[in-house]
């Protein structure tokens, strides 16, 4: 079992938690795993990407452009960016179907990316697409919808629901853990 | 921590190994990508109940010297920093190499090829060569852990400080790590007086320098014969067309690429101990290959130690780019080039065009909404529109967006460069206001000597210390101004900035609230008048906690009145808040509610009074 997963977002979306949960869940499932976040000035609004490499034989934590088996994105523009930079043809795209429009789009000077654009691109490159929509009580919990999709669709074989839950229990506590777990379970 | 395995960050794995190796004194100054090491040492020391002392030093030189003296008494000690931190600690590092130390001394220097968040991409392995200090260069977090323990043993065997040089991809890699058991060293501090050993008089250096050369020869011998776990060959399965010598994370990248490319005709020599280079191993490898490529970050340190470079391609001769990180896509191209093979990246032109049209480009970094520095910079510019603004290293370097950062050289240089600017203009008899900005942690780090110098030599300028009660840029570490310490139950003492500044001999010292722009403009002008009249520096301490500390503060919702907004963009250009944006088609500014934190500071910004308070939230 080998899976190279590329996660993409901007600071504050919970990319770090999402990728660390997957890394820990893989570890609980007994899979070798490596990952690295690149976050330069993320706290000040910069881009965050995370590379996760599950399975034997990965030396470096870095995934080559165009070589990821799966791309996870928390927003539609990021989905398109991850799709173009890192996903290989025939791979899997999981993205949260919301558009945090760049300013130029908000001002009507550029056309927004729509889920039709994503679907067209995925068809052309034989990419399996999971467009996730769910009501979340707090935008910071959108990452749980991605995690629940991975679990429900068994997108990373060997990692079970319980492994994801164990990982969440490691990383969160108190009320935050409760609400995240509740959301995760409700989407399975 | 009772469990035997855990997923750790590379820096946490290194920290775990430091505690397991019996380190009793650990010091550091924060700096990306090294910052997580010291807090993790504190965490593991807490959970394992060791006596390890864990401290943030005022700067890297301080941290180095504290750790080094502990090693004089037989204790194992450790000092961690980022690559540019070693520039600050260069003095004790260079001298320290010549001492016959007693307890193992491990220097961890995290390099930042790229760079991702640094002012240089210098290679600390070269510093190891300069000081004649052995260097370990890990290619993974697990290997770094093992190297920590071997470094301590090597340090004690040869009585020499040893450097571990992880790069950002090792520091920030997460992987599952198996814990070991901490060794228990029963070593009461024992300092045996010995002038020849502990005092670096020139007469002693005549003995210690040749001895250091002997030590390095002996270490080279060890690296050649006893460290095959770090220096080994991965032979080609067929006749090799190319031999690659790779160190650090570049080795990991090469191994991934060979698998991906399905190459059986390339052999790899991994070098985990780049200084002193095990020359015999490397020469033997080169002799057996017609075509040799060296891949290392970021300087040609392995390559430069190869005596006959006739067959060698690398960074020295520019075959490998002489700057920048060796990410997989770059290395793949270099390998093909070294093999003399055609290589083109399959680019999808359609998609590339679509992406360009959509302009899904990442946002440049800015100060956070509500950041007190933004208000301080605005007041500085308003007080002195034609001033010179030397600045420093920290979040506030982003004041460059507000055109209030004219220079940034290195830690502490805001103060000293102000002296230089003052003198240059004074000679011509035409003074210009000079207003320097420096953070609280940076002021303690290296601002102090410059301030003493300015008082002593009578230099007139205004020093604005931006006190946000935290070392913000590196993730929020404490510093002498806050008084907190990393280990549980360990308390330090906070040193008030104002008293320090007065103690340096500064007569004009004012502490102001960063958000009070109008008031602060007056204080700054007063400060400059005082400085000019008395020929001495004046200090204004701008005080407001960092937004990352998330302290409660009044919420003041605002809006832009479009009847008053004339579209001059003054607020965009000189306030530069993520919450204030400009609509190019309507030629008006507006508040972006996604980012606005309702600090209310921008109320003082618009020259036309277009930014107004709204009594209730929303528009």
Automatic annotation (TrEMBL), chain A:
Pfam families tied to this protein: POR (PF01558)
Record keywords: Oxidoreductase
Signal sequence extent: none
Superkingdom, taxonomy of origin: Bacteria
Domain Pyruvate/ketoisovalerate oxidoreductase catalytic: 11-185
Protein name, per record: Indolepyruvate ferredoxin oxidoreductase beta subunit
Species the sequence originates in: Acetomicrobium flavidum
From TrEMBL, chain B:
Record EC number: 1.2.7.8
Primary role: Catalyzes the ferredoxin-dependent oxidative decarboxylation of arylpyruvates.
Signal peptide: none
Source species taxonomy: Bacteria, Thermotogati, Synergistota, Synergistia, Synergistales
UniProt-listed PROSITE patterns: 4FE4S_FER_1 (PS00198), 4FE4S_FER_2 (PS51379)
Statement: the UniProt record of this protein carries the keyword Cell membrane: no
Subunit architecture: Heterodimer of the IorA and IorB subunits.
Main enzyme class: oxidoreductase
Cofactor(s) the protein requires to work: [4Fe-4S] cluster
Species of provenance: Acetomicrobium flavidum
Catalytic reaction(s) noted: indole-3-pyruvate + 2 oxidized [2Fe-2S]-[ferredoxin] + CoA = (indol-3-yl)acetyl-CoA + 2 reduced [2Fe-2S]-[ferredoxin] + CO2 + H(+)
Keyword terms: 4Fe-4S, Electron transport, Iron, Iron-sulfur, Metal-binding, Oxidoreductase, Transport
Protein name as annotated: Indolepyruvate oxidoreductase subunit IorA
Every 4Fe-4S ferredoxin-type domain range: 556-585, 587-616
